[in-house]
Amino acid sequence: MSRPLTIERINEMKKNFNSNRGNQVAQTAATTNGLFKAAENIQSIDDNNFNFSIDVDTHQVTNQRHSGRCWMFSCLNVIRFQIEKQYNIENFELSQNYLFFYDKLEKANYFYQNILDTSGEDLSSRDVQFLLNSPQQDGGDWNLIISLVEKYGVVPKYEMDESSCSMDSTELNTLLNRKLRADAIVLRRMMNSNKTTDEIKAFIDEQLVEVYRILSIALGTPPETINFTFRDKDKKYTSYQNLTPVEMYQKYIDIDLNDYVIIINVPTESMPFNQTFEVELSGNMVDGKPNRYLNVEMDELKKLTIKQLKSGEPVWFACDVLKHFDRQKGIMSDSLYKFKELFDLDFNMTKGERFNYRESLPTHAMVIAGVNIVDDKPTKWKVENSWGDTIGDKGFCVMDDKWMTDYLFEVVVRKEFFTTEQLANLEKDATVLPFWNPMNPITPMM
Fold first, then answer.
1. Catalytic residue among 173, 324, 364, 372, which?
2. Catalytic site includes residue 385
């Protein structure tokens, strides 16, 4: 049905708006202060103070700057927590730039492989356009960092510090994607003109040499050997010399990332609870660990999270940070903004509806560092962010329990806290979701 918007209808809208005094008050507040400030609920701010009955993490927060590396920062924050605990250190930090380099290199090779696999499809196909839209980017998920750490290890931050291009990845992504798209043209032509496998491999190898050069110029060259040195809280100095990054991870850090599992809460009919899911075209390397998720009900997700916190260990998680979040105060609360009252409208959707209609999806990864429990129920959660120490309480934030229910989508928990039935569900064949599913971490997290 086609119905044009007429001037008469617009005039009727204006008359209707002006006849309501509440609209005038809302307009004055919003035009003067902005929508969020005009709708801010002071009571929600007062309720979400920074006191928690379980508090496991107080080290200095990190800062991902203007990049989409939150998933990487958050995982390395979990690993650094173990290092600090194991060696009695304060504020030890691992190099995010080091893994960022290899993530970019692996994503380039992953892109080339996917271009080869789709070379028989028309250029306008949904698969090919998806690949060309973002040949590589900053986004990722927990299992992708496992692939990187197991292959390349970890290094202290002082061995490969941040560069201008890691702190702001915009220019690097623009130029690298330009090159990858140009290479895709050649690869598709080679495949469709029946070039030999050796010729195609040789071309890809040549291009990866160029990608490596671009990354080295922009980010610096990753070290082959490193020194792991520190002074602990008792002022004792320790130095482990000439380690490879893989040796540091395997021999000097008491953590195995394969002991952890991603669980999600996505309440939609197409993704039943207690089943596992994977997302196609969502990896970062050829033969890397796939993004695999066990979907559980929110109460169970919270129970598992609390078990890990009670054991003294923080929890990696991903959420929709774009919703009801005061970045300066560091407060995530479902009642933080009274948009319904400001606009006199009902914005209600279920979590599943928001997910299906792309109103809400995972946009940011952080670390749960504590929880406040009253009468055996969580009321609010302490969050370690990676946006520097000028927000919230020295970089830590508060997430109220209702917000967690509505906008948290995944957490990573050690297998030891799972039931036998849950572990059995993890081993079942996963349902493979299409690449356009909102769980695909191809969208760079903030």
1. 364
2. yes
What's the angle, vertex CA 284, arms to CA 96 and CA 71, rounded to 5?
40
* Of 97, 109, 173, 385, catalytic: 385
Tell me the two tokens of residue 120.
């028989």
**Domains in the chain, ordered, with CATH?**
48-433 (3.90.70.10)
| Three-state DSSP string of 314-370 | CEEEEECCCCCEECCCCEECCCCECHHHHHCCCCCCCHHHHHHCCCCCCCEEEEEEE
Out of 70, 75, 165, 319, the active site residue is 70
pLDDT tens per residue across all 446 residues of the chain:
888 999 999 999 999 999 999 999 899 999 999 999 999 998 998 889 999 999 999 999 999 999 999 999 999 999 999 999 999 999 999 999 999 999 999 999 999 999 999 999 999 999 999 999 999 999 999 999 999 999 999 999 999 999 999 999 999 999 999 999 999 999 999 999 999 999 999 999 999 999 999 999 999 999 999 999 999 999 999 999 999 999 999 999 999 999 999 999 999 999 999 999 999 999 999 999 999 999 999 999 999 999 999 999 999 999 999 999 999 999 999 999 999 999 988 888 999 999 999 999 999 999 999 999 999 999 999 999 999 999 999 999 999 999 999 999 999 999 999 999 999 999 999 999 999 999 998 755 55
Contact 413/97 with Cβ under 8 angstroms? no
